[in-house]
Design a protein that fits this description.
Elements (H helix, E strand, L loop, with lengths): L3 H14 L21 E7 L4 H12 L12 E6 L10 H10 L25 E2 L2 E2 L12 H7 L3 E9 L3 H7 L8 H8 L16 E5 L19 H8 L1 E3 L2 H6 L7 E4 L19 H14 L4 E7 L1 H7 L3 H25 L6 E7 L2 E2 L1 E3 L41 E6 L11 H4 L8 E4 L9 E2 L3 E7 L8 E3 H11 L3
Parallel strand pairs: 1-9, 1-10, 2-17, 5-6, 5-9, 6-8, 7-8, 13-14
Antiparallel strand pairs: 2-16, 3-4, 10-16, 11-15, 12-13
Helix pairs in contact: 2-11, 3-5, 3-13, 9-11, 10-11
Length: 479
């Protein structure tokens, strides 16, 4: 006979957990969990320091105007130093956002003790294949991997190679960022080197960089004879140009697009008939991910801002910053339709590091840049007597924008022809001379801007570490 105490326990158990009859004992598997409903859109302007943002605003809309970034309601400053350097490179800074771990320069989503080079300084890769020794650190789980594991949709969009440092930190783990053959293999489902944490694969992949997916024998850079483009085509609806991009399905099935051998074109040079814009790729990614009817993680990188700044080519850098800002507006407009009021959507916009771009002198207001009116790309004309250019100690004019270091360090300064400033290839002057034959301006170490909007955005304020951002995103979506 069941005693009263045991009967009470049985009743309590049934009330809490439910009781089964003999007829349904076979139904022991718990029902599937509900699909996640929250969305995270993480926008990264590579090299987009605060001075670059200021100059881009004036370039596009003048001193009185606002970019989309300026209108994000929650803001913060981010400290970007890496585990071993005062001035970070893209790999550890983006990895800090994606993993919450400060790591060494050049390292892609590995533990803090991981070294990118041996004791002599030789990088751990040979011809773009990783040579990371056993015991040199361990992989650190990324935000994309975590969200993929919880059933979220995932997407990676960039204007660089998809194997470049910033996008790579979301899905790969390697001790040196230049091992791009190894990184490419981590992205393609089913093959040797695939990152199993990506499950059936990242749902949306857009960018450049077929070189690291195609064997050397076919004009690429792979050493293993694998054609990863063909492997991708067997798993994804694939686009290699704008026409194919426009035809990609938006029904929630997996899609990928690799549009160039290396990085995609600067926005100033882009042929719209051949390459989609960053905004185009962002819009299609959101359409596909939202069609899945579940929450998603989307990373969007404006990667070529950084490359133009390394070249001290301000015009291209500012135009790519504007293109990045346009993509943010596209995303906000799209997400307001998907999730009115962004009640379940968090959008975060920031940068991985600064550059040495500076704004010189006491320039009068210029307004936006237009043909025949270079604006912030022009000469400094003092706010007192603004029609006359300001001059240096030798009586020569100088531009509003300059760089702390870079490839164009003049031995002797002279007059600047105004027509030079209209040339999109014009390189601003630098104080410290660097290799004139390369895009050799360095990163800067200043804090970067962060803006946020939507669910949990109010957490982002004050001064943050880039590792803090990872934790705040997880908190916002209860991950």
């Amino acid at each position: 006979m069941l005693n009263t105490k045991a009967l009470g326990a049985l009743i309590t158990t049934c009330l809490v957990a439910g009781c089964s009859s003999d007829s349904d004992k076979t139904s022991t598997t718990p029902p599937p969990s509900e699909a996640p409903t929250k969305n995270v859109l993480f926008f990264l302007g590579d090299g987009m320091g605060i001075t670059t943002l200021t100059a881009a605003r004036i370039y596009k809309v003048g001193e009185d105007g606002n970019l989309t970034i300026d209108q994000l309601p929650e803001t913060a400053f981010v400290h970007t130093y890496s585990n071993d350097a005062q001035v970070t490179d893209s790999a550890p800074s983006m990895a800090a956002y994606m993993t919450g771990v400060k790591m060494n320069n050049e390292v892609i989503s590995m533990s803090a003790d991981t070294k990118a080079t041996d004791a002599s300084g030789k990088p751990y890769h040979t011809n773009f294949d990783a040579t990371c020794p056993s015991g040199n650190g361990t992989p650190v789980e990324t935000l994309l991997e975590m969200m993929k594991g919880k059933g979220y949709g995932t997407g990676v969009v960039t204007s660089t190679r998809v194997t470049h440092a910033t996008p790579a930190t979301t899905y790969a783990h390697v001790c040196h960022r230049d091992a791009e053959n190894t990184i490419a293999a981590a992205l393609v489902p089913g093959g040797v080197g695939y990152n199993a944490k990506l499950g059936d694969g990242i749902d949306v992949i857009f960018g450049g960089g077929t070189d690291y997916f195609i064997p050397k024998e076919d004009g690429g850079k792979r050493n293993d004879k694998r054609n990863l483009v063909n492997e991708l085509k067997s798993k994804y609806s694939f686009a290699g140009n704008r026409t194919e991009f426009d035809k990609l399905p938006v029904d929630g099935s997996r899609i990928a697009g690799l549009f160039t051998k290396s990085h995609m074109a600067y926005d100033l040079d882009r042929d719209a008939a051949k390459e989609p814009s960053l905004g185009d790729m962002t819009a299609k990614a959101i359409d596909v991910l939202s069609a899945k009817k579940k929450g998603f993680f989307l990373m969007v990188e404006g990667g070529r801002i950084d490359h133009a700044l390394h070249a001290t080519n301000a015009r291209r850098a500012l135009q790519d910053t504007v293109a990045f800002d346009d993509a943010i507006k596209v995303a906000l407009d799209k997400m307001q339709q998907v999730d009115p009021g962004l009640k379940n959507t968090l959008l975060v916009v920031t940068a991985d590091h600064d550059h040495t771009l500076q704004m010189n002198g006491y320039a009068a207001r210029t307004g936006k840049t237009e043909p025949g009116s270079p604006g912030v790309l022009g000469l400094v004309k003092n706010y007192v007597g603004a029609a006359v250019p300001s001059t240096d100690v030798d009586g020569n004019p100088y531009t509003i924008i300059g760089f702390g270091n870079g490839p164009r360090r003049l031995d002797t300064r002279g007059p600047i022809d105004a027509t030079e400033l209209e040339d999109k290839n014009f390189r601003q002057e630098a104080v410290i001379p660097m290799d004139p034959g390369s895009d050799s301006e360095t990163h800067g170490g200043a804090d970067v801007f962060l803006g946020a909007q939507g669910a949990g955005a109010e957490q982002f304020s004050g001064a943050l570490l880039n590792t803090d951002v990872f934790g705040l995103i997880r908190k916002a979506i209860d991950l």
